[in-house]
Design brief:
- The complex is a heterodimer of chains A (433) and B (178).
- Chain A is mainly α.
- Chain A has a domain of 209 residues.
- Helix content of chain A is 73%, strand content 2%.
- Chain A starts with a helix and ends with a helix.
- Chain B is an alpha+beta fold and 178 residues long.
- Chain B has one domain.
- Chain B has 7 helices and 5 strands; from the N terminus they run αααβββαααββα.
- In chain B, the strands form 2 sheets. A 3-stranded mixed beta sheet of chain B has the order 1-3-2. In chain B, strands 4-5 form a two-stranded antiparallel ribbon.
- The chains are: A mainly alpha (433), B alpha+beta (178).
- Chains A and B meet through helix 5, helix 7, strand 1 and helix 18 of A and strand 2, helix 5, strand 5 and helix 7 of B.
- Strand 1 of chain A pairs antiparallel with strand 2 of chain B, so a sheet runs across the interface.
- Chain A: Keywords: Membrane, Transmembrane, Transmembrane helix.
- Chain A: It comes from Calorimonas adulescens.
């Protein structure tokens, strides 16, 4: 009975999120508290042996808020570095240099700009960064004859490639699924490569289909909104986004210190005096944390949901239901998660940045699938969400900016990103079963 | 924002160059000879086409070009007024952008153009020039390339803005927008 009530609550909250009646920010804590109440978890529940309080107040709400603390602190540091890159002109220079290097052909310019976007999003994230980079990259692509829907799609693919190895995200995947940094890193690198191949296929097919376009367009930004044109940066500063990655991948440093090295490196290569460096450091810290706020709040909700679904009283009641639904053979695993991959869209149940975390937590705590297989499936379905979801604020902004409908954008991308999710899940089934 | 077509020749050129990928590298190049070439090319082409028939719609029909008026697309930051899709042989005109942003920004001197039906031909003319570039006369930017340096390497590159500069010159001459 408890299991049925929890599933009904899950479906109601999912429906409210899909229909955009309530934001994820509210839905996740509400679902966590609702599940705990249905499962009968008391306000206080002290384990006599460990003395740990796993009750609703300390275990679910407070413990859940802090569960992903290391992940959201990494997000803050990433956003801080991202702000330095934006405010000092590093991001703009990387995009412009890529466009110049792309030569005369729209196809190659598109590939170079997509690669530059991918490099940038290995470090930065958030809507502010998308607006900053999008308002430089999209007009360049349109000006060389790339159709708006292809330009925006390639921007999203570039973001998808970069975000796959954005270490703020790795920190989240590690904490949410309990797998090791090495396991996340190896699989993320494979998914990144698959996304890059998918993006290349998309570009080849769509360029052939759509051809080039000539666009009569004019920027209507107010002077205050325009990106500072006079910023020139040292060529060494262009390496900033890959500095933290090199420290993690090669020197095996943890994520936060690697971001700190990136911050120091960006300041050394862009600032002319210590006074300027300190001023930039302070300003970008505040701006970066403001940028990271939506992700931090989301992670607080996800943490509560994880603590709720992984609570022994909840998992005990859900175990029989889930064991009868979730496939445990490699072929069934591929078909199940592959076919259902679009459920990551519209904040659906396979979205790792929402209800999917709860499902991942349950599957892992009940030992239905190996944690690596759960991570592999959810990271693969996350590709559909990260690149195509019309409820992503960055998809909405980019579509509006290029004057296209965000749902048409999804329709254009869906065959490619669904195939990408399948490819990721097949890879996970080979690696983790 | 004053719509590009109602700017003076040198302002149109500067405005289009600013949108070019290579804009920051053009400061070291004597760009005038390139932009003058593009302007003259657009201008001369307009005279030639106008001599055949001064009604732009005659040329559109003759070349089986489709013209689609779109009422859905609008964004007030990066305004797209019209497009020419070469593969589809189609001109798209975005009426909302034109009505809400282009027309109100037309200077007093050109107030007779504050009417969508009349302006329609401005966009058709501009995009028809691109059609000519693709199917008849070749891209303006292909004809004059500049040499740019990337570190130790020097490469020849197209200035894409020349296509737009020529298209504006074509439109101004064809419709006598002075």
């Amino acid at each position: 009975m408890q299991a049925i009530l929890i599933l009904i609550l899950f479906l109601i909250i999912a429906a409210l999120m899909v229909t955009r009646k309530i934001p994820t920010l509210i839905a996740l804590p509400a679902l966590a508290i609702g599940i705990a109440i249905i499962a009968g978890i008391p306000l206080k529940l002290v384990n006599p042996e460990t003395k740990a309080d796993t009750g609703l107040l300390a275990g679910i709400i407070e413990g859940g808020s802090l569960r992903l603390a290391s992940a959201y602190v990494a997000v803050m540091f990433g956003a801080w570095l991202g702000q330095i890159m934006n405010q000092t002109g590093i991001s703009k220079s990387i995009v412009k240099t890529a466009a110049e290097l792309g030569g005369d052909r729209p196809f190659f310019i598109t590939i170079c700009i997509t690669a530059a976007i991918a490099i940038l999003f290995t470090t930065i994230s958030g809507l502010g960064a998308v607006i900053m980079i999008g308002s430089i990259a999209v007009p360049i692509l349109l000006s060389v004859g790339v159709p708006p829907i292809v330009a925006v799609s390639m921007f999203l693919f570039g973001m998808g490639i970069g975000l796959e190895i954005n270490m703020s995200n790795w920190s989240f995947y590690i904490t949410a699924t309990g797998v090791s940094l090495d396991q996340v890193r190896n699989f993320a690198l494979i998914l990144m490569a698959l996304t890059a191949i998918d993006a290349l296929l998309f570009a080849i097919i769509e360029f052939r289909k759509e051809g080039i376009r000539f666009t009569w367009a004019q920027n209507n930004l107010k002077q205050s909104q325009k990106v500072n044109e006079s910023q020139k940066v040292n060529v060494f500063s262009l390496l900033t986004p890959i500095v933290p990655i090199l420290f993690v991948l090669i020197l095996k440093w943890p994520i936060i210190p690697s971001f700190m090295i990136g911050i120091v490196y960006s300041l050394i290569t862009t600032q002319k005096s210590i006074k300027n460096a300190i001023s930039t450091l302070t300003k970008t810290a505040y701006d970066g944390i403001a940028d990271a706020a939506p992700a931090v709040l989301l992670m607080i909700g996800i943490g509560m949901l994880l603590n709720a679904v992984m609570h022994p009283m909840v998992s005990k009641s859900l175990e029989p239901v889930l064991k009868s639904i979730i496939p445990t053979t490699p072929v069934a695993y591929v078909l199940f998660f592959g076919i259902l991959a679009p459920l990551a869209l519209y904040r659906g149940p396979l979205n790792l940045w929402g209800l999917g975390s709860g499902i991942a937590g349950l599957l892992i705590s009940l030992n239905i699938l190996p944690p690596t297989a759960v991570m592999g499936a959810l990271l693969s379905t996350e590709r559909v969400q990260a690149i195509g979801d019309p409820t992503n604020t960055h998809n909405v902004w980019l579509a509006n900016y290029a004057g296209i409908d965000v749902n048409k954008l999804l329709m254009k991308l869906l065959p490619y990103i669904w195939a990408l999710a399948f490819a990721g899940i097949i890879t996970a089934s080979i690696l983790f079963f | 924002m004053i719509p590009t077509i109602f700017l003076k020749k040198n302002e149109i050129i500067e405005s289009e160059l600013q949108n070019d990928v290579l804009y920051e590298r053009l400061k070291d190049v004597n760009i005038d000879k390139y932009t003058s070439f593009a302007w003259d090319r657009g201008d001369r082409t307009a005279l030639r086409i106008k001599e055949i028939n001064p009604d732009i719609n005659y040329h559109i029909t003759k070349n089986n070009l489709s013209v689609i008026i779109d009422d859905t697309i609008f964004n007030n930051e990066y305004l797209i007024f019209s497009e020419y899709a070469a593969v589809k042989n189609t001109i798209y005109i975005y009426r909302r952008c034109i009505n809400e942003e282009f027309i109100p920004a037309i200077p007093e001197k050109y107030k007779e153009w504050r009417d969508f039906e009349k302006l329609r031909n401005v966009f058709i003319c501009h995009e028809y020039y691109h059609h000519l570039e693709i199917n008849d006369i070749g891209l303006t930017a292909e004809l004059k390339k500049i040499e740019v340096a990337f570190g130790l390497f020097k490469v020849k590159r197209k200035i894409k803005a020349l296509n737009e500069i020529a298209a504006h010159a074509f439109t101004k001459r064809f419709l006598d927008i002075n």
